[in-house]
């Protein structure tokens, strides 16, 4: 499952939907007012359900009580390297906004945080590029 903080760009939200479809993810929980561009999301727009919530902290609390491990994708002093992290099967991958990342309120609710090593500048990847890498690392670990 994908959980997304508000994304500033409808293009990024649409690409996130397309990623979800390609990876077999059927649901995205999103906080924000973004709209999906069907030309970008392609067929995934028909197969990926988007649930919109005002605030993510209560959503994360509910997911955790439902047995999900909430894993954030963010650069912090406590982050695990994406390639060393073993994703639990029931993972909700939490993605931050393009500029602000994940708020402290969200970080405090996560079970783990992973980051992708960056070796040059800029010091971070595009939000959907990073999400794609994390989703496919999860798929590599769990799909036969």
General description of the model:
This protein is α/β, with parallel strands linked by helices and about 140 residues long. It has one domain: SPOUT methyltransferase, trefoil knot domain (Alpha/beta knot), CATH 3.40.1280. Helix content is about 35%, strand content about 20%. The chain has helices at about 10-25, 40, 45, 55-65, 105, 125-140, and strands at about 1-5, 25-30, 50, 70-75, 80, 90-95, 110-115.
Keywords:
alpha/beta; Alpha/beta knot; 7 strands; single chain; 19% strand
Concise overview:
Helix content is 36%, strand content 19%. The relative contact order is 0.21.
Strand element count: 7
- N-to-C series of helices and strands: EHEHHEHEEEHEH
Straight-line distance between termini: 18 Å
Tell me the CATH architecture: 3-Layer(aba) Sandwich
Using the CA coordinates, give the radius of gyration.
Answer: 14 Å
Number of continuous helical runs: 6
What's the structural blueprint in terms of helices and strands?
Layout: E1 2-4, H1 10-23, E2 27-30, H2 38-41, H3 44-47, E3 49-52, H4 56-65, E4 69-73, E5 80-81, E6 91-95, H5 104-107, E7 112-115, H6 127-142
Parallel strand pairs: 1-2, 1-6, 2-3, 4-6, 4-7, 5-7
Helix pairs in contact: 1-6
